[in-house]
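Record type: monomer structure entry
Structure origin: computed from sequence
Chain ID: A
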Amino acid sequence: MIATTNVSTDGLAAAILSHQVTSLILFDRDLKILYMNPAAEMLLSVSARMAQGLSMSQVMRCSRDVFDQHLDAVIESDQPITERGISLSPPDGHAITVDCTLVPVEFDEGQTCVLAEIRRVDRQLRMTREEQLITQNLATRDLIRGIAHEIKNPLGGMRGAAQLLALELGENSSLSDYTRIIVEEVDRLKSLVDQMLGSRQLPVMSSVNIHHILERVCIIVSSDPGHSVEFERDYDPSIPDLQADEGQLVQAIMNIVQNAVQATDKKGKVLLQTRVLRQFTLASVRHRLVLQINIVDDGPGIPQELQERVFYPMVSGKSEGTGLGLSLAQSLINRHGGLIEFTSRPGKTVFTIYLPLEHSND
């Protein structure tokens, strides 16, 4: 026999709304907030009591005028509207990306309100972007290995032929300079191909302190007398040691920091920041603890046309650059089960390194 309880319709509706995972916000005809369920309070980092009677623009900033223009359009047309990929900035300052459906709702007294159903999608977008970055890096490495094999074979033949020719001509020949140039240029091309391939050595794991590595990188970069960059630190001292190849980690971080220094024209500010993320997903694998390293510069930012390709080899925004630094850094971090992402706008570029902190047997 099923037990029943007397629950009013209003009480039942309130219980259902309070347990909804989707964030729900109800607006009146004047586009003022009438109601927010608990999911919306958590998403926007504001209580329903504080938000009641306010407009959406008073609660947060959004990338489009969706809560001004579209809310009004829903009331006028009495038709629902869906907007995707909207960037919102709650009071806590952490930008989020959401999909939003606006539905007209008519009450008994004839008043038309608008119900906003908001779903956060930035986590899914980030996971998709991660998978694309990892797939891109693996495909690029395979392509480079194939090209390198085809290039290095004839280079070896050219170098050997030039050396034999130099022996035939003798050291005092007026043509010996040409054979020397051939050998030097072949060696330079071989070195460039080796740089593109990167180290093929597997990481030799040991317990390392990330702050010691960051300070080592700062000392090396600061030893260059040609710049006056100011390094700022914002370290979390509670971060435990991680299992990593110290040399490879130094190389990866060095490449990013040097890019940041060059982006500031060697006279700006570079911030090094460390944090711990809990229950964080990397490449579809959920980790209990993940190390987050932010390398922030105040340079002009990465040009928009390069942002989708910065981790490809031979892509560089600098005329003198080879475009190998970020590609190699991504490859080295991938070997540690981590990932590099970035955001960039004029005045602030942030490269973020994610590395699993827990041991394999945790």
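Annotation 1: The first helix runs from residue 9 to 18.
Annotation 2: The two ends are 47 Å apart (CA to CA).
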